[in-house]
Amino acid sequence: MTTKFVLVVDDDVDIREAVTGALQEEGYEVASAGNGEEALAYLQSPGSKRPHLILLDLMMPIMSGSEFRAAQEADPSLSAIPVVLVSASGDVVARADSMRVAGVVRKPLSLDILIDNVERYADKRSN
Q1: pLDDT single digits (tens) 28-73
Q2: Where is the Response regulatory domain (predicted)?
């Protein structure tokens, strides 16, 4: 069985580290980025490994989750990677619909719910 690879994009270092650690304990390979621009740079770098899923914070400096998602959808080599929004924003569900993401996990995080979403959506990548 292939190890699933998840990209965690969140500007909060504590959340990024907690999510990364929890996913690694569950057997996932994990990379992380502090904002959408870092995530996009990683994904567009030659030879970068394509994640099976992106966990994306909505509110971040430099490049927000919605800005990242627009850039991701515009790039045919990245658009098929499923995204789960991870946010405390009150309108996250409405924003998720307009951003065409696979799922939503609300902050404060429940690691059980997060892992359930990762298990559900990491298999959805088309390639």
Answers
A1: 999 999 999 999 999 999 989 999 999 999 999 999 999 999 999 9
A2: 5-122
> What strands, in cross-sheet order, belong to the sheet with 53-57?
29-33, 5-9, 53-57, 83-87, 103-106
Buried b (16+ CB within 10 A) or exposed e, 13-40: eebbebbbebbeeeebebbbbbbbbbbb
Q: Which residue has the tokens 């390979």?
A: 29
Sign of CA dihedral 118, 27, 71, 34: positive
Residue 126 within any structural domain of the chain: no
From CA 11, how far away is CA 25, in angstroms rounded? 22
Residue 84 sits in a domain whose CATH number is 3.40.50.2300
Position 127 in a domain: no
Task: Compute the distance between CA of residue 28 and CA of residue 72 in angstroms, rounded to an integer.
Answer: 22
pTM beyond 0.90: yes
Ramachandran sector of residue 47 (left: φ over 0; alpha: ψ -120 to 50; beta: rest): left
Residues in the chain: 127
Contact 83, 24 (CB under 8 A): no
Structure tokens at 106: 């609300």
